[in-house]
Design goal:
Helix 1 packs antiparallel against helix 5, helix 7 runs antiparallel to helix 8 and helix 9 packs parallel to helix 10. The protein has eleven helices and 14 strands. The chain is of the alpha+beta class and 489 residues long. The protein folds into four domains: 70 residues, no CATH class; 112 residues, PAS domain (Beta-Lactamase), CATH 3.30.450; 88 residues, Helix Hairpins (Orthogonal Bundle); 153 residues, Heat Shock Protein 90 (2-Layer Sandwich), CATH 3.30.565. The strands form four sheets. The chain has a five-stranded antiparallel sheet. 54% of the residues lie in helices and 17% in strands.
């Protein structure tokens, strides 16, 4: 694993080595070119006045004609001063009249006079190149001076300072110089830069290696592995992203564990709730079959009613489970429309009055007739109010009361379902909306149920971007509240 973690380090190191080699070669080439130009400039500065001195000593042109004796004197002087130079006599147009050059390999007939005139006009001789008659495509350093007769320009002395023979000698020396430069300074600098670069890369990738090691530990099951604050460095964005991702994954795992735990509880509770009405049905049906001849009509009718009630409870439980599963899977989408919440509350109030009268519970309806319409799914909202009413009637004792109250709030209508039951302990109020989580106030058999009513109500209100709240005190009753948006025409 360490080898894999270091692979990036070696790849970067190899890339650095390649770049250093390329930079080294470029450096040597540039250094060689600069050194060559430096040599030419030095040559020109040393011998730049040679043409002017020659013209002062001898007159190569007399009456516009070449003086052979003068040329011989020039040749002799050049051989003494610098045997590698080439001397050319030019007319006023730059045409070569005659020359003194080894092997006489002159290929140009005319020389460009612009560099010559620039050179002559300068007080301090500049570094400038002119045509090389023996190499038409090359430029070379030179010395030049005008030839004057009776204060009239008769031509120019044009001297190439770095001849072909000199170039051959300097080429050999230059090659040796380049070899020394490359073998000494280049390789020393290359090795030094490589060592420094490897050390720098090692420190720069240290944080990345720490992050990779943390990722590996996380992958192998260490869910608490996080990139340390001191290990982030320049990788702070990557480190923070990984830490956030790890936190999200751990949270999802915990959520899945919680869901799995709830699933097991759901299966256990559903099994229990299904078993009870089924057992009742089975017991009374067996009794009817076994005592068919001895049972009178009233007893038979009583048993059949019990079987029917158990069947209805079983059907209601299955319907609740089906409804909750569809809500949880987000298969139900609200069909919102404006409607009068007062009319819906009145209908629910009328339906539950008979049931409340049977249980000797007082029903109250508190609302203003001029409440605005609300914008929601009327069927789902009715289901929420029914579930809350079922819950209120279940836990309200005889002589108690259940109240439906509607009040206009800021751009909303608040719905309250209040009872005078035993209340809910404060430490249990946080989970009563979870499926199959009921308060310990449920003690009697008649109060047992699926425990999905409040969970279904919460899911429906979440589809409406609304929340349900509970206010309760022991022995004082419980109130459930939720708000729906008012409809503006």
């Amino acid at each position: 694993m360490a080898k894999k973690n270091n692979s990036l380090y070696w790849k970067i190191s190899a890339t650095l080595l390649g770049l250093l080699v390329i930079l080294g070669v470029v450096y040597v080439l540039i250094t060689g070119y600069v050194a060559k130009q430096y040599f030419l400039e030095v040559n020109q500065r040393l011998y730049g006045n040679i043409a002017e001195s020659t013209v002062k000593e001898v007159k190569p042109l007399v009456d516009g004609k070449v003086d052979t004796l003068a040329i011989q004197d020039i040749m002799h002087s050049m051989m003494v001063l610098n045997p590698s130079v080439e001397v050319y006599l030019l007319d006023t147009a730059g045409t070569i009249i005659t020359y003194v050059a080894p092997y006489k390999k002159v290929k140009l007939e005319k020389v460009d006079l612009e560099p010559v005139k620039t050179f002559i006009a300068a007080k301090e001789k500049p570094f400038i190149k002119g045509d090389d008659p023996r190499h038409p495509n090359d430029l070379n350093v030179f010395s030049a001076a005008p030839i004057m007769e009776d204060e009239r320009l008769a031509g120019y002395v044009y001297i190439i300072l770095a001849s072909e023979e000199q170039a051959a000698v300097t080429s050999t020396l230059f090659g040796s110089y380049m070899l020394k430069l490359g073998s000494n300074m280049f390789f020393i600098a290359l090795i030094g830069a490589l060592i420094i670069g490897l050390i720098a890369i090692w420190f720069l990738t240290r944080n990345l290696r720490n992050i990779i090691d943390t990722v590996r530990r996380f992958k192998e099951g260490d869910l608490k592995a996080r990139v340390d604050e001191n290990s982030k460095g320049e990788m702070i964005v990557l480190a923070d992203t990984f830490n956030e991702m790890a936190d999200t994954i751990v949270a999802n795992i915990e959520e899945l564990k919680s869901v799995e735990k709830l699933r097991k509880e759901l299966i256990a509770n559903v099994s229990h709730d299904l078993r009870t009405p089924l057992a009742i049905q089975q017991g009374y049906v067996e009794t009817l079959l076994m005592k068919d001849e001895s049972l009178n009509s009233e007893k038979r009718k009583e048993y059949l009613k019990i079987v029917l009630n158990s069947s209805e409870k079983l059907s209601g439980l299955i319907a609740q489970l089906f409804e909750y599963s569809k809500l949880e899977a987000k298969q139900i989408q609200p069909s919102k429309e404006p409607f009068f919440i007062t009319e819906l509350a009145q209908d629910v109030f009328q339906k539950y009055q008979i049931l409340a009268a049977d249980k000797k519970i007082n029903m109250n309806l508190d609302m203003s007739p001029d409440l605005p319409m609300v914008f929601a799914d009327v069927g789902l909202v009715e289901r929420v109010i029914q579930n809350l009413m079922d819950n209120a009637l279940k836990f309200t004792p005889e002589g108690g009361s259940v109240t439906i109250a509607l009040h206009e709030m800021d751009k909303t209508v608040e719905v309250k379902i209040a009872d005078t039951g035993p209340g809910i302990p404060e430490n249990e109020q946080s989970f009563i909306f979870e499926r199959y989580r009921q308060s310990e106030r449920i003690n009697s058999e008649k109060q047992q149920g699926a425990g999905l009513g409040l969970a279904i109500a919460k899911k429906i209100l979440e589809l409406h971007d609304a929340t349900i709240r509970v206010n309760s005190r022991l022995n004082e009753g419980t109130t459930f509240l939720f708000q729906l948006p008012a409809y503006n025409n």
